[in-house]
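FIELD: query
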Amino acid sequence: MLSLVTGASSGIGLQYATQLARDYKSDLLLVSNQEQELQQVAKDLADSYGVKTIARYADLSKPDAAEILHDWVVENGYMVDVLVNNAGVFFFNPYCETSMKRIELMLNLHMITVAKLTRLFGDDMIKRELTAEEQNQRICGCKRKKGYILNMSSMSAWMAMPGIQTYNATKAFIYNFSKSLWYELKPQGVNITVMAPGAVDTALFGLAPNLRKLAVNLTVSIPPEKLVKRALKDVFKGKKADTPGVINWLSTPLLKHTPDWLLFLAMKYLAKYQK
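FIELD: result
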């Protein structure tokens, strides 16, 4: 099994690569725009888990990045079994103070590239014929499929949040795009799953350790390792979509009805994080 993971040199992408190698013994095609870090990650994972790793530097924010990557994969004779569209960027900024270059980067990376990679590799998966041995294989207790696609959205897909307006919109695209494709791809032997987590337990927001621990205990925040473990089980079991955390799941319908006064209060809080 060969898994292609984008944004694989750090963060959640590194977790996906690590768990696919460690827990599923999958060979890895690791893609990132951090070339030196990517080479080291590929070496470390190969040494640690005895899987084949391929490092491929690519700037996936380029409009034709998906076609270039797919052409390279085909030319080298690789067959991708698992596609993890994880690469992404995040920043707080008033929209009219954000450069056009930064806006285009996010739109391309989160929507254009994800849509194209899903189209190109999804078509390869549909056309694939499993061998008799592969047909008898089971992953997470389920019969093996022709292919698996995992896309990363966010709870912010339901939020009207100033400062991250472009991020929210792109994550909403990923969520609805993936759920719609689940119906198209499932009858053709391909599983596609979209994850929409809330906060992930990292140092991004600068919270004190005790507050981070409280958020995790309340299931408002989730450790990266736990998120990835759950996401991989979801995709191999054919789940359509998932939002980890009971509180997050229950609060999702309320997010679209957030009162204006609370959003203006959030604007003042978020201003300190704007870059």
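FIELD: remark
Residues 2-273 form a domain with the Rossmann fold fold (CATH 3.40.50.720).
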